[in-house]
Write the structure tokens for this entry.
Amino acid sequence: MIAALCAALSGLAFFASTGLGVIWPLAWLAPAPVLWLAFGQTRTRTSAIASFAAFAIGNTNLLPAYYDVLPMVPFVIGIVVAALAFAGCVLAARLVQQRVSGIAAIIAFAALWTGFEYLSAFGPNGSVASIAYALAGVPVMAQTASLFGIWSVTFILCFVPAGLALFYQTRAALPLLLSLCVFAANALYGHLHIQDSAKTMRVALIASEEMSDEASADNAKDAIAAVDDYASLIGSLAERDPELIVLPERLAVLKPQWRALALKKISDAARTAKAPVVAGFADITPTEKRNIALVFPPDGSAPLKYVKRKLVP
């Protein structure tokens, strides 16, 4: 009964905070119930099942959005693999606690799950499933990403609840102290980092549901039509003096046949608006398929480029 309750609590916390969840404070607590179970006297098999069930429950919050978009078999396999990996990390932390120390177990759990997410990022969907994105809407809590990428956020999101779980299981003060210190240090760093770099900007965000179909078209006519539509919108903003203009992540498909023309149109629009333009494209070449983000300077010079490791469909 206790194991089922722990699985349910962790699963609901993951469901509500990660993936498509929006209740970000629960991300700081989600692993704690099943870790508390693992750090106690419960049988290893029971801990494994509870941990697996918790993470699987959490990942089901993606079903309403993707059940009719992605093939169900690969989708279910993805949930199962992630849940197995999470259960493995919990059991590994349990083993480290029993054979080394509680503090080592906290570090082991955080390091192992961060490592799993890092390796998963080399897969076809990149890092999109990382629990770190639970804090994307709370910039002050995610500023450690400026140090080591989202992996530092993942590590902290694992370290804090692991320490809390160990404290409530053993009543040892040190795990609680470490968890609170890491949480506070993360929040303080975020506050200072944002304060140091704070600058008010007038930003124009442009997106159009009417052009969403054109964004996936891989022919010259529709791709250029999408670019023309956005270029027109950019030009219409000039009189409102934006300091930065941001377009969708994938506003059009670029292929060698029309790439230069499409980029020239956005570059000309940026010059007309007298503001940098950030635009995302699916860049398709004979050898590669990647998502790119281009920054078009207002002086008409060549755009700066950010290239994702892989194309995310």
Observations:
- The chain is about 55% helix and 10% strand.
